[in-house]
Design brief:
744 residues, alpha+beta, Arc Repressor Mutant, subunit A, Rossmann fold, six-stranded antiparallel beta barrel
């Protein structure tokens, strides 16, 4: 006989499993759960328990019946009164219990009713809001709009975005774009078909296609700065504390940038550099009596330009170093331009004032030409006279930097996950990829999963600028780290992720997009050969130029001459002009601005030529000004769409029509004027009106193909995609002649 389980026994007795388990416990049994097997002893005990209950119930019913039929007079007086008193007490108790139960039930019903009404009210309010929003947008003429909230990764909070605006990045797949717009991929693919585009769910889309599809679906787009940044934007900054300023030291070569920083740091970096010129980027933390300052020392302003070329912004303040015995030089002007383009304040350090030939007032006068007016002269620019050799004015310079930092009110939260910018990265023997990073917000610890550019890994080791090993680093600190699986570029963002999987996913996605960009763009920047195609596609409206010449006069003449060449469709724009050889900074500026470099009597150095090849920046070298003007004028003329005219070639009369199987309609013609060529275009004229314009499909003389049929001869003519040829039609033959337009 099969053993029964407790829940099956409970079903037989028509009670719950829980109740039966309680009865078994009362009977001194210890079952584990309702799935436990009911033993014979349990079954016997349960049977006896229920039999006893039945007997007790039967006995109670019998006694009540006897009381009901027994006359009151037959009972003893005392006993009857006692029974009545007992009955009243029992009835009172029962009524009290019943009343309490009813009250509890009523309270429970009221609570449920309140919850139900509250829920319904919330639902009604939500529906009313949605309905009101749709009605309002309809009156404004708007289409379908996006939701107010955008979902992030699982476990993240929902982040508010603008209504009807979606964040996109170039080369998103159809599935990714559909997810952002809260649509099914099939619906978006149907929209593609509607617009005449064939697309699959994993197909990557360029930005023009993304914008077209978004508008069709009722959304406007906002380009996401970088893949993965949204993972950090969800973290709320609650404990904002003061952080150190990040200061970039810029200026002309040999004006004492690194020497000035050496005195502040009490080091001697210059002696370690080849030729006493800074060859690499350094990031240093300097402690002052009041606070700390993070300095970035660059070779010229190349790294600053490189970071701006990649959309990075790390600098809070720029210290422009100008030699008091030399004056404002080309790289000084370039540094001013780049600092202003980045929108950061400038503090001028007039260096080498200890020299006998120093003339600080002349420097201040020269800087006024670039809208940098000293506070002493009624302007707003802080200018400090310093000497990197004697230390004169250094303390004042640090005080001015601290004062400017106070005005900027720089703060960051050290408790969130770290984020920063890669300043420099290279391969080191025995260490692998080593990246110099400035942390902008949050903190970084050894062991954290990280992403920098398109590479990922863990923070294996971390050092300060003085080679001290660190366990953690906070905002505005410059550190060197190892652990990435590749070498990122200067300007790449550096982020601490939640886990390895998230870091790997972002790295893979960035790599895919980078590969897609390389395939579609061919690593290409602007070249004179590509400009015309870009103009046709509506991508470029101006030809941007970076001009470098051997002397300032030539640079000025070239700038004025080339700047005047323009039409209604396109124009030239000189974004920078300077004196001296073509350097890496010029190439980086051209790469960032999608410009062409014009070199007049100057050459690019080896590093600039190598960088130009890597970034595919077009460098044109000249030694005659008229050749420069001629080439740029030709380039602009090449951008102009040519004038197209029809040139009459001949005419033929249709005298007979033949239907050829598998080929179509052939017109038997007689050439009345001119000549018919196989490559010509045709007008089919009927009753004085053109009924069709197209290309010749075939031209035959008897059964042989012919390239040309002259006047006075018969021929067979087939017209591409046109079969409705009739006897008496006239076939006019013409050529399309393109005439290049000239600049006025």
């Amino acid at each position: 006989m099969a053993k029964k389980r407790i829940y099956e026994v409970a079903k037989e007795y028509k009670i719950s499993s829980t109740a039966l388990l309680k009865i078994l416990v009362e009977l001194k049994f210890a079952p584990k759960s309702h799935m436990s097997v009911a033993t014979d002893e349990m079954l016997q005990a349960i049977g006896k328990k229920f039999e006893a209950e039945k007997e007790a119930v039967k006995k109670d019913i019998t006694q009540k019946k006897k009381k009901a039929v027994t006359p009151p007079s037959s009972q003893p007086k005392g006993t009857a009164e006692a029974d009545k008193a007992g009955d009243k007490t029992k009835l009172k108790d029962r009524m009290q219990k019943l009343s309490g139960a009813l009250k509890r039930s009523e309270k429970k019903k009221k609570r449920q009713e309140r919850r139900r009404k509250s829920k319904e009210a919330r639902q009604v309010d939500h529906k009313a809001v949605v309905k009101s929003f749709k009605a309002t947008m309809a009156t404004l003429g708007g289409g379908k709009k996006g939701r107010k909230y955008k979902k992030r990764r699982p476990g993240e909070e929902i982040v508010a975005v603008e209504e009807g605006v979606i964040e996109v990045n170039e080369f998103m797949t159809v599935a990714e774009l559909a997810r952002v717009m809260d649509m099914k991929p099939a619906e978006l693919i149907a929209t593609c078909f509607k617009l005449g585009m064939m697309a699959s769910i994993n197909q990557r889309l360029d930005m023009d296609t993304i914008e077209t599809l978004s508008l069709e679906c009722g959304f406007t787009t906002r380009i996401k700065e970088e893949i993965g940044e949204e993972a950090l934007q969800t973290e709320e900054e609650t404990r904002m504390i003061k952080r150190a300023p990040v200061v970039t030291v810029m200026g002309h070569v040999d004006h004492g940038k690194t020497s000035l920083l050496d005195y502040i740091r009490k080091t001697n970096v210059v002696d370690e550099e080849a030729g006493a010129i800074t060859q690499h980027i350094g990031a240093y933390e300097v402690w002052t009596p009041n606070s700390s300052i993070t300095f970035i020392d660059t070779p010229g302003h190349e790294a600053f330009t490189a970071m701006r070329a990649r959309g990075a912004q790390v600098t809070d303040l720029v210290v422009l170093v100008v030699a008091a015995d030399d004056g404002v030089m080309p790289q000084t002007v370039e540094a001013i331009d780049h600092a202003r383009a980045a929108g950061v304040p400038i503090v001028v350090a007039i260096n080498k004032v200890d020299k006998p030939t120093a003339n600080p007032d002349q420097i201040k006068q020269q800087l006024t030409k670039y809208n940098l007016v000293s506070e002493e002269w009624g302007g707003k620019t802080v200018m400090v006279e310093v000497s990197a050799k004697t230390g004169q004015g250094i303390d004042t310079l640090l005080e001015m930097i601290a004062l400017q930092s106070e005005l900027l009110d720089l703060k960051a939260d050290p408790d969130i996950r770290g984020q920063g910018i890669v300043i420099e990265a290279r391969l080191e023997k025995g260490r692998g990829p080593v990246s110099t990073v400035i942390i902008q917000r949050g903190s970084v610890a050894v062991g954290d999963p990280i992403v920098a550019g398109s590479y990922f890994g863990h923070v294996r080791l971390m050092w300060s600028d003085r080679e001290y090993e660190l366990a953690t680093a906070g905002p505005a600190m410059p550190v060197r780290i190892t652990g990435l699986n590749g070498v990122p570029q200067a300007g790449d963002t550096f982020m601490v992720m939640r886990d390895d999987q998230e870091a790997r996913e972002i790295s893979i996605k960035r790599t895919q997009i980078k590969r897609e960009q390389e395939i579609r763009r061919g690593f290409g920047r602007a070249t004179l050969e590509k400009i015309y195609e870009q103009i046709k596609d509506g991508q470029v409206k101006e030809l941007r130029l970076v001009i470098k010449a051997d002397v300032d006069g030539s640079a000025e003449v070239l700038s004025e001459t080339l700047g005047k060449i323009a039409t209604e469709e396109v124009r030239t724009l000189v974004i920078h002009k300077g004196v001296g050889g073509i350097s890496e900074s010029d190439v980086l500026l051209a790469a960032a601005s999608d410009a062409i470099i014009i070199g007049f009597n100057v050459r690019p150095d080896g590093r600039a030529r190598e960088l130009a090849a890597r970034e595919t920046v077009d460098i044109r070298l000249y030694n005659v000004i008229y050749e420069v003007e001629s080439d740029v004028r030709k380039a602009l003329e090449g951008m102009l769409s040519p004038e197209v005219k029809e040139e009459y070639a001949g005419v033929a009369e249709v005298r007979q029509v033949f239907r050829v199987p598998k080929i179509g309609t052939i017109a038997g013609c007689f050439v009345k004027e001119g000549a018919i060529h196989r490559s010509d275009k045709v007008h089919v004229v009927r009753d004085g009106r053109i009924v069709y314009t197209g290309n010749l499909h075939s031209l035959k003389r008897f059964k042989d193909d012919a390239r040309e049929v002259a006047s006075g001869y018969e021929c067979g003519i087939g017209i591409e995609d046109f079969q409705d040829i009739k006897v008496g039609d006239t076939i006019e033959v013409f050529k399309l002649v393109e005439t290049a337009r000239k600049l006025e």
